User: Fold this.
Amino acid sequence: MREIAINGTKREATGKKASKLQRKEGLVPCNLYGETKGENGLPEALAFTAAMADLRKAIYSPHVYVVNLNIDGKERKAIIKELQFHPTTDALLHADFYEVTDTKPITVGIPVKLNGLAQGVREGGKMNLSIRKIDVTAPYKQIPEILEIDVTNLGLGKAIKVGELKFEGLELATPAQVVVCSVKETRASKAAAAAAE
Assistant:
């Protein structure tokens, strides 16, 4: 996985009013959930702010990043877990980060890349990519930037499901029955099949 550095400052003031002021200054309120547990045994969040300019590089990108967070001089590694956007302006309102370690498995959506020209496409069919990302579980150092899938032997009217895929060192968290891609019949492929008959 690619890595990106983001600087943060611990938030002393939290709540709606404080968050509004922070956003006016070009900052985004964030939480980091990590190894620290509260009295009730639930993960305790570290509240901080980060500059929108820094976050933009990690968010508006096709890549999935491990974020090297520097919060007031203290280094933490994390992944972006959840983002909240304004419903009408699409402005980023809030970001949640999840702390990662070298050994602890994480679940993250990784982009899919189809390799090869499918048999069904050669016969006039149309390739249809149903999902752009597959959720995988593994320690972050074992997670690749993209999941490459060979579609060369995929015939007309056939599909590849998540359950048929295997990637070394990765556990697939997306349900096995989910269709990744398929070759749909087209008028051209039907005409070609009719002519062959």
User: Anything to note?
Assistant: The two ends are 49 Å apart (CA to CA).
